[in-house]
Amino acid sequence: MIKRPFTLLLLLALISCLDSRENKLQRFLIQGNDAAARQSYGEAKRYYMEALKMDSCFVDGWNNLGTVYYKEKHFAEALDAYSNALHCNSKMRMALLNRSNTYYELNKYPEAMADINAFAALGRDTLISHLSRGLIFTRTQQFDSAIRSFKKALEMNEAHVETLVNLGTVYYYKKQYDSARVFLDKAIELQPSEPNAFNAYALLELDNGNSSEALRRVNQALALRKNDPYFLNNRGYIFITLNEMEKALADIDKSIGEDPYNAWAYRNKGIYYLEAKDAAAALRVLERAVKLDSTVSKLYYYLGEANLLSGRRDEACMYLRKAFAKGDLTLEKLRVKCASKK
């Protein structure tokens, strides 16, 4: 008779402890989320880590910690956090989506596709899964597959501006400029404050030899999103085509300062150095670009040119043959530049 109430008290104490533990976890999560919303990322990480000290399989803590790292562009750390969340719960859809986005930023496209497919398999295909696939297909230059994915996204929401811009961009890559204009015009009509549409239009105009119009369009983009590293980089490239080299270098350097992981900016800085006949500097930044993302347009061509400028003919022709294989150099030009290396 004496032991029964003691057992009951012990049980109540355990329940109270568990309740307190869960409350503390949720409190740390809420505090971390609040700090993250204020962009106080260091503070947010401290709260999430306190929760994870209490429960190493607190999946919301791992997922949200990964998102803070992602926002800081610390993609390797973000990948570890999302992977820890999925180790604890392999069916956490949000972590699968977030890890797919992280793999994409790390240029690990098969892994990104596997995660987005797993995300969709746990529920159903959504606009976001079609959009994500389209972005991966675009980055890997599978443009027809990208178009199909983006159009599936539009079937779910024909007024989705981000998808319209991406479709316009893919048609630009395919040099189908009339189709590109249709989707970009629709995006601007629906959302005149969407800077990515003006940025894509700038590239389209540049491809068609309209550098002044391209400059006007990219300035529209920058007016809507000041100091965007991609827009700055594109304006820098436009300035190169206009032979305004000091302005070009200022924009490209500012772009790299805002985002040191954009391979396109290093490619464009390489072009700047090629124009300045500085082979060593061109090689340095172009080699940095190829390490970041070898799919960047005409990157191998410019590496070939930089090696020719530095007198390294064998290396130059190796890169120029790669450029030819990617369609960035004609066979005639390849033969002219590497006459004995057909």
**Could you list the spans in which at least 5 consecutive residues all have pLDDT below 50?**
1-12
**Tally the helices: what do you get?**
19
Q: Biggest β-sheet: count, sense, barrel?
A: none
Radius of gyration, Cα only, in angstroms?
A: 25 Å
Q: Helix proportion of residues, in percent? A: over 70%
* Total beta-strand segments: 0
Overall structural class, as computed from helix and strand content, comes to mainly alpha
Terminal residue distance: 98 Å
Percentage beta strand: under 5%
What is the mean pLDDT?
91
Comma- or semicolon-separated keywords:
342 residues, 19 helices, mainly alpha, single chain
What can you see in these coordinates?
It is a single chain. This protein has 19 helices and no strands. The protein is mainly alpha-helical. Helix 3 packs antiparallel against helix 4 (75-88), helix 7 runs antiparallel to helix 8 and helix 17 (299-309) packs antiparallel against helix 18 (313-325). The longest helix has 35 residues, at 3-37. The chain is globular and about 75 Å long. Mean pLDDT is 91; it is low at 1-12.
